[in-house]
Amino acid sequence: xxxxxxxxxxxxxxxxxxxxxxALDVLVNRHKVRIYTSIYxxxxxxxxxxxxxxxxxxxxxxxxxxxxxxxxxxxxVWAIRIAHNLCVDHFRxxxxxxxxxxxxxxxxxxxxxxxxxxxxxxxxxRQTNDRIMKLVGQLPEEQRExxxxxxxxxxxxxxISAVLNCSVNTALGRMRYALLNLRKMIEExxxxx
Length: 193
Description:
This protein is 68% helix and 0% strand. It is mainly alpha-helical and 193 residues long.
């Protein structure tokens, strides 16, 4: 598996299609944090995110084995687009909005971790992040998705437009409105950041 770690996503896809199952393990390990975090922040439930993550890789395996993968050098964008569609499908089925809290009542954004060894600064940062992320949770879905894909999945706007099936200008516009709305909510609610 170590030899595979230096290969590109496209090379790994080709190896998997040719029967090298370890290549898929490398792909999953390479991108699981970005993909899982994107799913989790959209559905706001750890167990549901895990289910969708597993369903995603079942779909990916089926697509690759069927020879239908055509997204050369864009594996992670393609995977996040499928994940996004699976999330949308889930919410269409239940016809409701995602809850803001997890099953155990914790704020979904507790997954954020800090590397700073200073405990006091960590607490202040976590509280600030919690406040901001609660505000992000109040944004309209399209704006919330843009924030999640840009800042947590670390996608570029052209990649976001591919995931959401919209133009780059639309994605940029949604981000602009999301930031304006966040700024307005911060002022209205007098959130200290």
